[in-house]
Amino acid sequence: MTDTPTVDAKDAKPTFRSDVTVELVKHSAADSDVLWAARVSTAGEQSLEEITKDPERSKGLINYLMRDRHGSPFEHNSMTFFISAPIFVFREFMRHRVGWSYNEESGRYRELEPVFYVPGESRKLVQEGRPGKYVFVEGTEEQHELTGRAMEDSYRRSYEAYQEMLAAGVAREVARSVLPVGLFSSMYATCNARSLMHFLGLRTQHELAAVPSFPQREIEMVGEKMEAEWAKLMPLTYAAFNKNGRVAP
């Protein structure tokens, strides 16, 4: 994991960012994991031989499992990501419970640093249509200027209030209540390929998706970065996922 310089929160000034970061910190995940898990049903202990075989020879089996929704063989692997994103992203993220484990930094036990989310120029700002049938379109230059200015002003005021309470001896767990959901947080998230595929099916838009999804852009940004890491670890599984409509088995 890349070393990040630590800053004493008491001396820090609010900073603003429009990106998210995702780092794969450890993994035990390969296409061969799918094969030996699947073949135990017919080969018993001999299925362990799949660990040393070239998975390319059995990519048809991986595709069959994906196509016919035999999902459990895709669970015998693990990936742990370190994610930095706004708090509102994590509150959506943690709706994904099956096959996921989370540990997030705590505002009860540490003083939170003033890093806040402001949408970048490419972020579509305007929602048109009614709930269940709407689209997002580009904002005007004036809307982007207003959004950035209003958010930065609000973030500064809230962090000043937070610091004022801490300086007066108010407990961190109480003082954090004034901080907005645009504050950046960090967490470890651990999943397997099946749970990640379910996440990606719901939290990314993709031209190959058989079932359309309409995620908030910020959580989609996290999903895209996780997907890129997973694709390198399990390329045959990833290809089968796309080939079969990006629906988790």
Automatic annotation (TrEMBL):
Q: Name one GO molecular function term.
A: thymidylate synthase activity
Q: Which UniProt keywords apply?
A: FAD, Flavoprotein, Methyltransferase, NADP, Nucleotide biosynthesis, Transferase
Q: For this protein, what does the record note about how its cofactor is bound?
A: Binds 4 FAD per tetramer. Each FAD binding site is formed by three monomers.
* Associated pathway: Pyrimidine metabolism; dTTP biosynthesis
Family matches, as CDD domains: ThyX
- Which SUPFAM superfamilies does the annotation name? Thymidylate synthase-complementing protein Thy1 (SSF69796)
Which reaction(s) does the protein catalyse, per the Swiss-Prot or TrEMBL entry?
dUMP + (6R)-5,10-methylene-5,6,7,8-tetrahydrofolate + NADPH + H(+) = dTMP + (6S)-5,6,7,8-tetrahydrofolate + NADP(+)
So where does dUMP get bound? 92-95, 104-108, 176, 203
Query: What's this chain's function?
Result: Catalyzes the reductive methylation of 2'-deoxyuridine-5'-monophosphate (dUMP) to 2'-deoxythymidine-5'-monophosphate (dTMP) while utilizing 5,10-methylenetetrahydrofolate (mTHF) as the methyl donor, and NADPH and FADH(2) as the reductant.
Name of the protein this chain belongs to? Flavin-dependent thymidylate synthase
Organism (species): Streptomyces triculaminicus
From the broadest rank down, the organism's phylogenetic lineage runs: Bacteria, Bacillati, Actinomycetota, Actinomycetes, Kitasatosporales
